[in-house]
């Protein structure tokens, strides 16, 4: 067996590299890809979500987002929200426009519109609708927004003053209607809403620098109408502007005789008057309300009627209703009183149209009531029956004071003397209406018929007397009596005047003569006045002695 000798040789161990150079190329490619992807996402910009009520005119991948007519993004997809009531627009904003996404940034769909200020969005007829972005001024980084249905009336970058106008009645105002000052447009109505109280509140924006014209004594009024009047020079037509006639609008001014006041804060409230003449009739803003309770009828008194102090207007009637007082109060009264709510202008009494003026007015009225001031109903016109409320002092009344009822200050009242007379006349007329006038007239007619019958009978009697007097026997009777007397006188001539027979005969002749004279008088009376046989002649008035001079 042959042995083989092996020489011991030490092995050399070499360490292989962990990463082969062949992987360098893929690694570089991976880094480049990551950089490209990162750059891609960085270049894409942030994704935002906008909720609209409708997706009309919006298409994914086509509809652009613009700011000041510069493209800043594009719509990527359009989806319905979970409640299926709105649509959600997912859009991508360019990186260099990401700073425009702030808390108060606004979005709306720009498309052709016809409004009070003209036609807008005509360029979209060719290019199609797009989403307009209006940057805000809040903190950046917001990505979820609520889109507007229409273009905002006031740009977010516009400086100015926001005020609220409160109206008691319906108005012809519309969003976008102009706000005018002496006929010049200085702002617009931005929003309208109906409050829970039933009043209409309009939000108005006054552009800078015209916002300095709105002061604490400014009065806003409806300028959507027109007025005209006849003057010696012709017809005088007045209107704020043609645009206000077409689309409505409001105007503001400071009433005559009122100071300019001070600047107001953003969000101040003003009453909206029905027309320009109303701001001069009611130039004051701060008023105190007082409740009047009347025992008499308030017929003829209307809401808006003046409240006067010795002929000078100091307020108006605000309301006339039983609902001003709780029903429990009426139930406690045998004859429920009629509540009337009046408003007194603080500026007219104390000269300060401010909250401080209201306090001074209350203090002064407390003193006046203690001194005998009372409220009364007065007739302003007897023809129309219109009535007003008057305030005056009555020295004969006892001292009084204000009281509280249903949250109102109650001012004592007094009945007017004329009202009492009119009330009594009304009661008399009512009683007269209750009389049986028909039966009375029938009875009177019957009586007249009977009187007429009596007169007819009397006329027949007179005619009978006339026919009797016209007979020859009656006419010859005086001559026959005269002949008889003459014969007696001849006979008596043969007797001695001192004899008894002569005296008796003479007395008989005298009586016969008197009878003849009476018959003649009756005959003459019947000839001149036949009715005297029934009716006696009126008694002659006694002669009155003349006054000595």
Automatic annotation (TrEMBL):
InterPro entries in alphabetical order: Mce/MlaD, PqiA-PqiB_transport
Stretches assigned to coiled coil: 502-529
UniProt KW keywords: Cell inner membrane, Cell membrane, Coiled coil, Membrane, Transmembrane, Transmembrane helix
Domain named Mce/MlaD: residues: 45-136, 288-393
Spans through the membrane: 21-42
Compartments it resides in: Cell inner membrane
GO cellular component, one term: plasma membrane
One protein family per Pfam: MlaD
Entry keyword annotation includes Kinase: no
Designated name of the protein: Intermembrane transport protein PqiB
High-level lineage: Bacteria, Pseudomonadati, Pseudomonadota, Gammaproteobacteria, Alteromonadales
């Amino acid at each position: 067996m042959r042995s083989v000798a092996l020489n011991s040789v030490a092995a050399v161990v070499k360490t292989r590299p962990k990463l082969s150079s062949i992987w360098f190329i893929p690694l570089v490619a991976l880094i480049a890809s990551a950089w490209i992807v990162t750059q891609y996402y960085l270049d894409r910009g942030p994704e935002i979500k906008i909720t609209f009520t409708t997706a009309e005119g919006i298409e994914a991948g086509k509809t652009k987002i613009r700011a000041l007519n510069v493209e800043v993004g594009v719509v990527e997809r359009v989806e319905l929200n979970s409640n299926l009531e709105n649509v959600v627009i997912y859009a991508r904003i360019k990186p260099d426009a990401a700073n425009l996404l702030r808390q108060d940034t606004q979005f709306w769909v720009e498309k052709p519109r016809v409004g009070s200020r003209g036609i807008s969005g005509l360029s979209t007829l060719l290019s199609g609708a797009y989403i307009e972005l209006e940057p805000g001024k809040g903190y950046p980084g917001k990505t979820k927004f609520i889109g507007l249905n229409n273009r905002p009336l006031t740009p977010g970058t516009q400086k100015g003053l926001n005020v609220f106008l409160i109206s008691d009645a319906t108005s012809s105002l519309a969003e976008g209607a102009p706000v005018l000052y002496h006929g010049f447009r200085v702002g617009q109505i931005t929003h309208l809403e109906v409050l829970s109280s039933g009043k209409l509140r309009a939000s108005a924006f006054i552009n800078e620098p015209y916002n300095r014209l709105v002061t604490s004594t400014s009065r806003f009024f409806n300028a959507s109408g027109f007025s005209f009047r006849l003057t010696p020079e012709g017809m005088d037509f007045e209107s704020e502007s043609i645009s206000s006639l077409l689309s409505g609008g409001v105007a503001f001014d400071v009433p005559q005789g009122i100071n300019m006041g001070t600047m107001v804060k953003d969000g101040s409230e003003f009453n909206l008057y029905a027309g320009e003449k109303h701001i001069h009739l009611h130039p004051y803003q701060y008023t105190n309300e007082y409740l009047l309770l009347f025992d008499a009828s308030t017929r003829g008194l209307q809401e808006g009627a003046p409240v006067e102090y010795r002929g000078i207007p100091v307020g108006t009637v605000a309301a006339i209703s039983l609902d001003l007082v709780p029903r429990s109060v009426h139930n406690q009264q045998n004859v429920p009183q009629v509540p009337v709510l009046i408003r007194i202008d603080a500026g007219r009494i104390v000269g300060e149209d401010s909250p401080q003026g209201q306090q001074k007015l209350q203090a002064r009225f407390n003193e006046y009531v203690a001194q005998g001031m009372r409220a009364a109903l007065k007739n302003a016109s007897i023809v129309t029956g219109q009535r007003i409320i008057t305030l005056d002092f009555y020295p004969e009344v006892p001292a009084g004071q204000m009281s509280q009822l249903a949250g109102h200050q109650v001012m004592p009242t007094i009945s007017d003397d004329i009202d009492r007379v009119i009330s009594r006349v009304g009661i008399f007329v009512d009683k007269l209406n209750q009389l049986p006038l028909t039966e009375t007239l029938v009875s009177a007619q019957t009586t007249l018929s009977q009187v007429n019958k009596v007169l007819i009978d009397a006329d027949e009697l007179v005619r009978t007397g006339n026919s009797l007097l016209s007979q020859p026997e009656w006419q010859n009777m005086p001559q026959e009596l005269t002949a008889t007397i003459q014969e007696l006188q001849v006979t008596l001539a043969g007797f001695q005047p001192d004899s008894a027979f002569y005296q008796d005969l003479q007395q008989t002749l005298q009586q016969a003569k008197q009878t003849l004279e009476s018959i003649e008088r009756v005959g003459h009376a019947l000839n001149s006045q036949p009715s005297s046989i029934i009716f006696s002649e009126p008694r002659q008035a006694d002669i009155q002695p003349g006054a000595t001079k």
